[in-house]
Amino acid sequence: MELTTIWFIAIAVLFTGYFILEGFDFGVGILLPVLGREDRERRAMINTIGPLWDGNEVWIITAGGAMFAAFPHWYASLFSGFYLLLFAILVGLIVRGVAFEYRGKGDTDRWRRNWDICIVAGSALPAFFWGVVVANLVRGVPLDANFDYTGSIWGLLNGYALLGGLTTLLLFATHGAYFLHLRTTGDLAERARAIGIRLGAATAVPALAFLIWTQAAYGNGASLVLIILAVLALVAGLALDYTGRSGWAFAATALTIALASTSLFCALWPDVLPSTPDAANSLTHENAAATEKTLGIMTWAAVVFLPVILLYQGWTYWVFRKRVVVERIPVA
């Protein structure tokens, strides 16, 4: 297998891992005012992701770094053409991170309420715009002979991409609800289960429409199989949550995200950024790649450091695996 193929797969895996892990973070933030009826419940919800959210963001940082080193033309065209979308995501992530840190620094309800709004907005913006970004990757954008983006921001906000954004927004919210059902107790966990059922049903409609559109317009045999499996996993998660099997329901939505993300990268292959006006201007895994020597050095570095990173993050999840009990949180 060529190194360009290996690194395309590696970047796809990093994005997929990010969507799975950061997806439930986003979902918890989106649901903060919906499920948190009083301050202790909202603090409990934040505590479920408190030790994890910043580690989950390492996946997208690593994906961006791998893209920069392995496919510099892809990185340049994506980050210049999608600048405003990625900037909106970055602002959301910054606002959310600051809100997590500053929420507990004030004593008034107004102070905490304002930061709660920042958490919701900082979770919803990336959850939506990541779907828009990935959908445009699959759909393609106008590129000239120098691989420069020649369109506008409005061209990126097309119907297919907006449907992709709605799908990721609802899917991540559902993923977060299942996570809260798994990681909390009592009434809060039951309400998370109930809203997870409703969100799962609501997610099925745009998700199915988006995946069918993807397959019809851009898909291939591999993406078709993955799309069918993703739909089945989403339905299984809904059924498992309905029966109270929180761990299996969470695993099912994680599998849904993994299969859906993989199907999109399969539909994209062998391009990394298709050109809509002229296919000759498309960026592929070959013409966008760095030199063979660079890819070889990166491969050896990944072999050495990737297991260490995975072991560390796995250890973190193991240490903070216990459920958060609202009644044990002191009254502010």
Automatic annotation (TrEMBL):
* Gene Ontology biological process: aerobic electron transport chain
State the compartments where it is located: Cell membrane
Q: How does it sit in the membrane?
A: Multi-pass membrane protein
Q: Is-annotated flag, keyword RNA-binding?
A: no
| Keyword terms | Cell membrane, Electron transport, Heme, Iron, Membrane, Metal-binding, Oxidoreductase, Transmembrane, Transmembrane helix, Transport
The gene name reads cydB
Q: What is its EC number?
A: 1.10.3.-
- Give one GO term, molecular function aspect: electron transfer activity
Family classification: Belongs to the cytochrome ubiquinol oxidase subunit 2 family.
Q: From what organism does this protein derive?
A: Glycomyces lechevalierae
Tell me which GO cellular component terms the UniProt record holds.
cytochrome complex; plasma membrane
Q: What class of enzyme is it?
A: oxidoreductase
Q: Where are the transmembrane segments?
A: 6-35, 56-76, 82-102, 114-133, 153-174, 195-216, 222-240, 247-270, 297-320
Major location category of this protein: membrane
State what protein this is by name.
Cytochrome d ubiquinol oxidase subunit II
Supply the InterPro entries for this chain: Cyt-d_oxidase_su2
